């Protein structure tokens, strides 16, 4: 579903991704973890061309994302993206935030868009928040609206860039539960996260990055009990003991 081959990326003279290759099969859930500055967020942002790449190739469902011939706006219709900050429109209700893109981009009727939007918000535990504006929602509720907004475009892939990092601890669980449900439904996902328990429970593969490279990739049962690299062992000794 997602194929990343020998991708490099620099900002000025600083190389943030070095020869990164990764395969994400359909319906799999991949967690990308690692220390700050490892290149995790940059990598996930290259998957839908929010960041250009210097060399390499990224394909999603057979479409070369960084090919100049590719209509990236059309390609992005199949790639949902949820940011750290919720990026909701403050002047629109929760339902309006969810329905705007399907109506404007996919030319869906208001009736159909609202029906789908209400279904999505209800599935995420927000059936009483259709008419609420973002400033009347908690952080966890806003992030779930952001997830519903991405799902309203019926993407084939969902990308999450540290979706819980801006939340208070008591709000983290409700967002992780929403992502957990997507995993159970078979959505293909790449999740940049600091939530080790979530990664261990939900994800099919753990991708550990450091210094702009994929240092190690393994199933959670292997990675969290017996990682191969010293870099991963050192990382886990810090994050699992705090």
From TrEMBL:
Q: Where in the cell is it found?
A: Cell membrane
Which InterPro entries does the UniProt record give?
Answer: AAA+_ATPase, ABC_ATPase_HisP-typ, ABC_transporter-like_ATP-bd, ABC_transporter-like_CS, MetN_ABC_transporter-like, P-loop_NTPase
Q: Which SUPFAM superfamilies match?
A: P-loop containing nucleoside triphosphate hydrolases
Q: What lineage is this protein's organism placed in?
A: Bacteria, Bacillati, Bacillota, Bacilli, Bacillales
Q: What family does the database annotate?
A: Belongs to the ABC transporter superfamily.
Bilayer topology reads: Peripheral membrane protein
Instruction: Give a yes or no for keyword Cell membrane in this entry.
Output: yes
Domain ABC transporter, residue spans: 2-236
Query: One GO MF term, please?
Result: ABC-type amino acid transporter activity
Q: Which keywords belong to this entry? A: Amino-acid transport, ATP-binding, Cell membrane, Membrane, Nucleotide-binding, Transport
> This chain belongs to which protein, by name?
ABC-type polar amino acid transport system ATPase subunit
Extract one GO cellular component term from the record: plasma membrane
Q: Does the keyword S-adenosyl-L-methionine apply?
A: no
């Amino acid at each position: 579903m997602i194929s990343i081959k020998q991708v490099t990326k620099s900002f000025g003279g600083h190389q943030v991704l070095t020869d990164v290759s990764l395969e994400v099969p359909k319906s799999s859930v991949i967690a990308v973890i690692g220390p700050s500055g490892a290149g995790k967020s940059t990598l996930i942002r290259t998957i839908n061309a929010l960041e250009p790449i210097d060399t390499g190739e990224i394909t999603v469902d057979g479409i070369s994302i960084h090919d100049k011939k590719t209509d990236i706006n059309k390609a992005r219709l199949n790639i949902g993206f949820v940011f750290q900050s919720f990026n909701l429109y403050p002047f629109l209700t929760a339902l309006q935030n969810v329905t705007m893109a399907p109506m404007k981009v996919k030319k869906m009727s208001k009736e159909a868009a609202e029906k789908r939007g209400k279904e999505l918000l209800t599935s995420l535990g927000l059936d009483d928040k259709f008419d609420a504006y973002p400033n009347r929602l908690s952080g966890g509720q806003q992030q779930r609206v952001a997830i519903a907004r991405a799902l309203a475009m019926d993407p084939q892939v969902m990308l999450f860039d540290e979706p819980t990092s801006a939340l208070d601890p008591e709000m983290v669980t409700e967002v992780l539960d929403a992502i957990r449900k997507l995993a159970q439904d078979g959505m293909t996902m790449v999740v940049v996260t600091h939530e080790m328990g979530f990664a261990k429970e939900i994800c099919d593969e753990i991708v550990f990055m450091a210094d702009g490279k994929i240092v190690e990739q393994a199933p959670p049962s292997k990675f969290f009990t017996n990682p191969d690299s010293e870099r991963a062992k050192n990382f886990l000794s810090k994050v699992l003991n705090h």
